[in-house]
Design goal:
- The chain has 22 helices and no strands.
- By secondary structure, it is an all-alpha fold.
- It has one domain.
- The relative contact order is 0.11.
- It is found in: Cell membrane.
- This is DUF2029 domain-containing protein.
- InterPro entries: GT87, UCP010361.
Length: 457
């Protein structure tokens, strides 16, 4: 017997109200469209959202990302084009090359290996597709002057296009996976597909690669496949560290179920997948591979974090102090999530626990870049599939998104030359929006009757 899908206009109060303008909620005798399945609807929505995201980056594309003022004022900044020439990809160099001359010319890629591999592979594909010639002449050109070469500039544009396509495919996969996590609630994935924060943040960096792997892990866990769950978490952690935190949710659920075998399989698969993906980098450039860890350990209070507010307010905080306090605070928060998960009347859902752990990490972290909201997005929409709550949270994120670019352009600097209090307000608003959603998810875990999904999973 075919399972009946939950109708969004009957399930969500916001959609119920909106539907009044087009005839009201779906009727009891309505027949589902044969072609417009939930999955296809969601994929169309995510395609439209991604197209809007590309349009939002158009001002920078038109200027080849060359105007520092425009990229901030028009909020179209992306890391992608700058790293093409700034990390050696224009010369098709392996990211973990340990040659002294290469390292003197180019900085080491500061991201985990998954992103480094993706950027390196994309550069090779673009070079082949554009019919690029030998890269040897570029070896004698200073990294800062590479874009003066018309051929390099053309390849950089191709690199942006190819990376955009790769991010689009990762987003499509994420949407496809989210549609299938809850068999009777496929339209919950529309909250991801039509998300305003997805539109504006999709192309800032390579974060959507990890987002797709997290969505895949949620699907694998919903199908009782702990090994595949672990593999996807491991690959995700090798791309952006945060997917590793999903293991905390897995362990809480396994502890409640006394499913020790599933926990062991998931952890072993995570470790194996992470190690396998990291081995090529470790073997070819150990010092370069360690750069990601050293870079994050040494950096101080950075954009978007409460630590930045504290630092700019005049409180002396060193990188070491931030590391120690953040680690301790995150450890305490993990224990709180463990207690919440064990006290819950029903088994919490992995999306709920994963959202709480990752959100807690971001709140105490030393940097909270605007695109990090994407880390939370697939977890948030399944943890609390309600349009009102998602829009309140995302409105706070959009306020911060605009503020951070204006801040970087100096638009928020006060006339007296002091620190920008308005930017501090934007950070606090973002944090409060996140805490609002966290509080609702905690309530849903402890009071399952309030959870829209209302199922043990």
């Amino acid at each position: 017997m075919q399972e009946r899908h939950v109708a969004p206009t009957l399930d969500d109060p916001v959609l119920t109200a909106v539907s009044e303008g087009i005839g009201g909620p779906i009727g009891a005798h309505a027949r589902p469209a044969r072609w417009w399945t939930p999955g296809r609807v969601v994929l169309v929505l995510v395609t439209l959202a991604f197209a809007l995201g590309m349009l939002q980056k158009q001002p920078c594309w038109a200027d080849d990302w060359g105007d520092g003022h425009e990229r901030y004022v028009k909020m179209c900044y992306s890391d992608v084009p700058y790293l093409y020439t700034g990390r050696g990809f224009a010369e098709l160099l392996w990211p973990y090359e340990d040659d002294a001359e290469v390292r003197a010319k180019y900085e080491v890629m500061e991201y985990p290996v998954g992103i480094a591999y993706a950027a390196w592979g994309t550069a090779h594909v673009v070079h082949w597709l554009t019919g690029g010639g030998s890269v040897e002449p570029l070896a004698s050109v200073d990294a800062g002057r590479l874009l003066e070469d018309p051929e390099v500039r053309r390849e950089m544009r191709g690199f942006v296009v190819a990376t955009t396509l790769l991010m689009f495919l990762a987003t499509l996969f994420a949407a496809w996976a989210l549609v299938r996590v809850h068999r009777t609630r496929p339209y919950d994935a529309a909250l991801f597909a039509a998300s305003p924060v997805l539109v504006v943040n999709a192309l800032v960096n390579w974060d959507l690669l990890a987002v797709g792997l997290v969505a895949g892990a949620l699907l694998a866990w919903s199908r009782n496949r702990p090994v595949l769950t672990g593999v996807l978490i491991g690959l995700g952690a090798a791309t952006k560290l945060y997917p590793l935190f999903l293991l905390g949710g897995v362990l809480v659920i396994c502890l409640r179920r006394r499913a020790w075998g599933d926990a062991a399989k998931a952890c072993a698969a995570t470790a194996a997948a992470w190690l396998l993906l990291n081995l090529p980098a470790m073997a070819t450039g150990w010092a370069e591979w360690k750069h990601f860890w050293a870079f994050n350990d040494d950096r101080g209070a950075d954009l978007g974090s409460l630590w930045m507010v504290i630092s700019q307010a005049g409180v002396p905080v060193t990188a070491e102090l931030i590391n120690n306090v953040s680690l301790a605070a995150f450890g305490v928060w993990c224990l709180v999530v463990l207690a919440i998960g064990l006290r819950a009347p029903m088994n919490p859902r992995l999306a709920q626990l994963g959202f709480l752990v990752v959100a807690g990490f971001l709140l105490v972290n030393k940097v909270y870049s605007p695109q990090y909201v994407l880390w939370l997005l697939p977890l948030a929409v399944l943890a609390r599939p309600r349009w009102r709550d998602q829009l309140i949270w995302q409105a706070c994120e959009l306020f911060y998104f605009a503020s951070v670019w204006w801040y970087l352009d100096g638009q928020l600097a006060p006339g007296g030359g002091n620190q920008s209090v308005f930017y501090w307000v934007a950070i606090v608003v973002r944090v409060l929006g996140e805490m609002f959603l966290m509080a609702i998810v905690i309530r849903d875990v402890l009071r399952p009757a309030a959870d829209p999904v209302r199922e043990i999973s």
